[in-house]
Amino acid sequence: MRTRVAILLLAALPLAAADLAVKASVPTGALLYHHRSTGWELGSVALLAVLLLLVRLPSRLLAAAGGVYAAGLAGNLLSALSDGGRVPNPFVAGTLAFNLADVLLLGGLALLGIAGMRLAVRHRHVLPAATVPVRIGRYARARWAARNS
Fold this sequence. Notes:
Blueprint (H helix, E strand, L loop, with lengths): L1 H24 L7 E3 L2 H16 L6 H23 L3 E3 L2 E3 L2 E3 L1 H23 L9 H17 L1
Antiparallel strand pairs: 1-2, 3-4
Helix pairs in contact: 1-3, 2-3, 3-4
C-alpha cells in the first residue's frame, strides 16, 4: 500500500504545482474567474479523502489515475483558498474558459474509469455472479415467457 500512496503523491504533487505555476504566470482577465463556495471547498476536501482511500485497492494504475485527479482538485482548491474563493481560468477556447487543473480533472476522471474497469476485470472472480439489474431482467424475461406460452 505504501507504493500506491507514493504513486498517488508522485503523480499529484508535481501536476498540482505545475497548475499553480501556470495560474501564477499566465495573466487572467477579471471576467475569467470562477467563484467557488464554501460547500464546493468542503466537497473538494471530501473527494481528496476518498482519493486517498483508493490506494487501499490493489491497483497501481488506479493510484496514478487518482493522483492525476487529485492534482486537478488540489490545484483548484488551493487557488480558491488563496484568492477568496475565486479560481483563475487563463485559457480560453471559444466561449469556454479553463485552467490546467480542469484538464487534469477530466483526464483523471477518464483514467479512473479505465483503471476501475481494469481492476474489476482483474478481480471479477470476487464480484457477485448477478447484480440486481441482472436479476430484475431475468425475472422480467421469465415472467414474459410464462405469460406468452
